[in-house]
Amino acid sequence: MSQELIIELVEAGVHFGHQRQKWDPRMKPYLLEERNKVHLLDLGKTVEQLEAASTFLAKLTREGKKILFVGCKRQAQDAVQQAAEETSQFFVNHRWLGGTLTNLETIRKSVNRMAFLEDIEKSPDFKKMGKKELASLNRERAKLFRNLNGIRMMEKAPDALMIVDSARESIAVAEARKMNIPIVALVDSNANPDIIDYPIAANDDAIRSIRTILRKLVEPMIAAGGGK
């Protein structure tokens, strides 16, 4: 075990879980102790899980597979988008639309609608539109862009999901499990690790913790050819 990595994780606050009243008993194997009514995660287990998850994601990258990064909480949004863009993968970082995996055909129609609105100025009816109508269309375009831009090129289901906060993104987890899509996810002390294929016990509320974990996953992916 790399002591330097353990120190880096501690400095990033990766080991801080939730208060004990919020814990999920299924996380017990990944807890080290309780301090001031807050659970501390076992970083030894986290390092092992990181190694397994990064190996899995790097393997998919080498094979040219596609990974969908998901993290819609404010602390994760920028880091999730950056990780996906650095590795030329897909991302959802504002709102998970129900059916993103299980009803992709409908999602693709929304993507096409977004593309149409982005080129609305080329429409023959553009000059006939009033300010109020154009303002409404611009709001619709902005909303679609925020929710769909990261998956605009995703024409089929991804080969894996990388999720920040599996408890919060429960709909994404449920859809992936229904479709037998492997899941890599940060699981905090309030989550159920048993429904995640590659759980990573980690603080999923702190920006620095999220960025540190994602960086440890992204670097092997880039080395494996991601981001070309």
Show the helix and strand layout:
Blueprint lengths: L2 H9 L4 E4 L11 E5 L2 E4 L1 H20 L4 E4 L6 H10 L3 E3 L11 H15 L12 H18 L11 E5 L5 H9 L4 E5 L10 E4 L5 H17 L5
Parallel strand pairs: 4-5, 4-6, 6-7, 7-8
Antiparallel strand pairs: 1-3, 2-3
Model description:
- This protein is an alpha/beta fold and 228 residues long.
- 43% of the residues lie in helices and 15% in strands.
- The longest helix is centred in the N-terminal third of the chain and has 20 residues, at 43-62.
Give the key terms.
single chain, 228 residues, alpha/beta, five-stranded parallel sheet, three-stranded antiparallel sheet, elongated
- Main sheet makeup: 5 strands, parallel
The low-confidence runs, each spanning 5 or more residues with pLDDT under 50, are none
The average pLDDT score comes to 94
In terms of DSSP E residues, the strand content is: 5-15%
Overall spatial form? elongated
- What's the helix-strand series? HEEEHEHEHHEHEEH
Radius of gyration computed on alpha carbons: 19 Å
The structure class reads: alpha/beta
- Helical content (DSSP H or I, runs of 4+): 40-55%
Order of neighbouring strands in the sheet with most strands: 5-4-6-7-8
Q: Could you give the count of β-strands?
A: 8
Q: Span from first to last CA?
A: 31 Å
How large is the count of helical segments? 7
